[in-house]
């Protein structure tokens, strides 16, 4: 919303607030009894022209002036800050951007205040460990003027609980032959529900001589002082454990580097841990075509008209569509077990007690078919898998609350949760095994074997899945607005579930809100789930997934396992590849077989391999069905190949770039039968290698690494190919329908 007025308020006026109302005023009165009136018409929402801004009457404000101009009133003049003889007193309202000039190396935020940062007690606060490390004291004053003082290390009681990344400080005393620790303080953020002081490590350090032996012993004490459980919130437990030790090690080197008699013992290659890291400013450029128009040179710069809507937040996505006043919200009832037999489902008696409850819809309410899937019908809409049903209520929050109250009784069954477990159990999707064979193994000089594990990846698109469904013509037609890459699949699923002809189903998609493949097939069951209550109730129903639910049930990029055996010569020429490749499909096939096939097609990357045998299997696991993601299996196949290429290079003591260049393809028939023609790989590789002076860059990297023990650089040239796109041939084409209307406007519909 934009706010404008007759005239702007000056900074001086901005500091004046009405004592009675707290609203900004220009009367400059500080008397509570003085009459102050602020016209409600002064600030009003206005529209403006997107192209040239002709309707702006004043500078756009981010916040309404009532909020922007409000000032704090306090009897304490030092609410900002005062520099005194015995230290720096910092008021709670000091902005972090102002404090940055004093504590430049610690503070990273640009807004908010010191007091707010402290009182939130965030476990990832940058400042709170610093206050603890330097022994800061907090002066706390309540609304009645009562005050008390507490140490920072006693102020933080728990996660976002107070008494109302890391910081280290050391005090050393110089003796005749050494430096002795007189006092110490070590604090960490992000390792506990609140910032944590390492008190055992502090007690151990005091009185000890500052040397390498002290460091080794202190690291052992700290390891037992800062404990992170395996299920600690935030994950990456092993990484965070190593960071706690690394910070102390880096601090030790930094302090030692300042001390005479100690810094000489630090090897030059270790100093990279002492120096701060400086990231160069990132710059970019964009090239535009210039054409001559008469006597003028014209810069051809085409602007995407929707960009203004995107950056101002005005672009409407599926969830932004206003729900009609007679509409309802829906929430899914989710299974709490990865693999179980459902014994009974509460008919909604407990959920009915929820405020705003409208109805609970289960598999028994499905009008036609409960089996859905884009490839084979091996997935159920409701009842026995991850989605058990759908609850409808008057608000989104009420629908979620009611869904949580649906009681489901289970009989636990063994769950398969990894590719290796699936292989051991022989758990594969039926008719989903492929094999490609070319040539034979033959003789070789060397053989390497290994495995490559490739994890999954969250899609994390901008907007979660959302569908708004309503009926028309007395329920004979179903219309919907959905965030999907495949409106036709929504049409198909809803038709299949409701038993209506596809001609009676209309799906519109204005903006997807990010998809990357994740809204190609997995979005359709969301529309199908919303369509059932919308059709039965004959009222509009919107189903929008919260981000956590979206990530739990809609799948991700497939994880892969590749088991390879490679035969090659002592010169580095690859002779044969025997590869077993598996992907984790989850609980339904979805496009997993096509993704596996594409990984198999890319398993040679750009290298000539005369003899190949590749077998692929799609694993059935008790995860939500995984789905399409950018690359569609190609990156996983090439990553496995690059792994064994590097293994060969290590085996032969050669660079990986040499092995790659030796084995480049040129004019041969691939393992899937394609004749490669007009291959410019050698030429392209050599031109790029020369233009970036790759050899010199490698020498610079080697020189840097030889002089730095803890900070390393690396450089690589990695070729990739874009192979066969889709094995379903009709998907390798596209079309467009263009309507030109009599008023000169044009409507373009495009797609596969």
TrEMBL record:
Compositional bias (Polar residues): 1-10
SMART domains (alphabetical): Ald_Xan_dh_C (SM01008), CO_deh_flav_C (SM01092)
Cofactors, names only: [2Fe-2S] cluster; FAD; Mo-molybdopterin
Enzyme Commission number(s) of this protein: 1.2.3.7
Pfam families found in the cross-reference section: Ald_Xan_dh_C (PF01315), CO_deh_flav_C (PF03450), MoCoBD_1 (PF02738), MoCoBD_2 (PF20256)
Keywords: 2Fe-2S, FAD, Flavoprotein, Iron, Iron-sulfur, Metal-binding, Molybdenum, Oxidoreductase
GO terms, molecular function: 2 iron, 2 sulfur cluster binding; FAD binding; indole-3-acetaldehyde oxidase activity; iron ion binding
InterPro entries named among the record's database cross-references: Ald_Oxase/Xan_DH_a/b (IPR000674), Ald_Oxase/Xan_DH_a/b_sf (IPR036856), Ald_Oxase/xanthine_DH-like (IPR016208), AldOxase/xan_DH_MoCoBD1 (IPR008274), AldOxase/xan_DH_MoCoBD2 (IPR046867), AldOxase/xan_DH_Mopterin-bd_sf (IPR037165), CO_DH_flav_C (IPR005107), CO_DH_flav_C_dom_sf (IPR036683)
Span list, region Disordered: 1-23
Residue ranges of domain FAD-binding PCMH-type in the record: 1-175
Domain of life per record: Eukaryota
SUPFAM superfamilies in alphabetical order: CO dehydrogenase flavoprotein C-terminal domain-like, CO dehydrogenase molybdoprotein N-domain-like, FAD-binding/transporter-associated domain-like, Molybdenum cofactor-binding domain
Alphabetized PANTHER family for the sequence: XANTHINE DEHYDROGENASE (PTHR45444:SF3)
Protein family: Belongs to the xanthine dehydrogenase family.
Protein name per Swiss-Prot or TrEMBL: indole-3-acetaldehyde oxidase
Organism annotation: Arachis hypogaea (Peanut)
